Amino acid sequence: MGVISTSEFRSGAKVEISGEPFIIVDYQHVKPGKGGAFVRTRLKSLKTGNILERTYRSGETLDEPDMEEKEMQFLYAQGPEYHFMDTSSYEQLSFDQGQLGESRDFLKENMRVKILIYKGKPLTVEVPTFVNLKIARTDPGVRGDTASGGTKPAVLETGATIKVPLYLEEGDVIKIDTRSHAYVERA
Asked: Which secondary-structure segment (H or E) carries 37?
């Protein structure tokens, strides 16, 4: 397990605090007129999602967590269990709905995802930033109302509901930004 110094802090760096993995969300190097320099950080727990604010003296070090990132393929969901396969070793892992969080709204069979593994246990599933999904159900658009820029709810093939422009219909395949859960364009 390596260490990371305050001079190596950057957004997205992963550190371990009290045996728990965190990701650095934000940091700021501060050099006061008198006294030692320090780094103000905002960290997000990779287990709970909680935000932690900490200050470290310049030059202090933190442990890097025992983590690995694997590319896996989503196979299928069975009840609350979601099954994935490592694309290189064919080893299979399963997650339950709670562990997946909002990622499950965009999972489609055979989709490739990144899975973060901490101390041998799957921790998070990262879906691609943009995914193409089919609209399963939506109300018909009102003719002539396309210019107003209005939106309507649409249920996607994965079961997630998002807002889409009025002119889209059932069966249309659309591109979605998974970070904002927003419609981008027709695929």
From this structure: none
- 154 vs 1: CA distance, rounded Å: 46
| First-residue to last-residue Cα distance in the chain | 43
Three-state DSSP class for residue 102? helix
Alpha helices in the chain (DSSP H): 97-100
pLDDT digits (tens, 9 = 90+) for 81-126: 889 998 888 888 888 877 777 788 898 889 999 888 888 777 888 8
Distances (CA, A) of 109 to 27, 34, 75, 100, 174: 38, 58, 5, 15, 17
pLDDT tens per residue across span 168-186 = 889 999 999 988 888 999 8
Alpha-carbon span 180 to 178, nearest angstrom: 6
Secondary element (H or E) of residue 153: strand 151-156
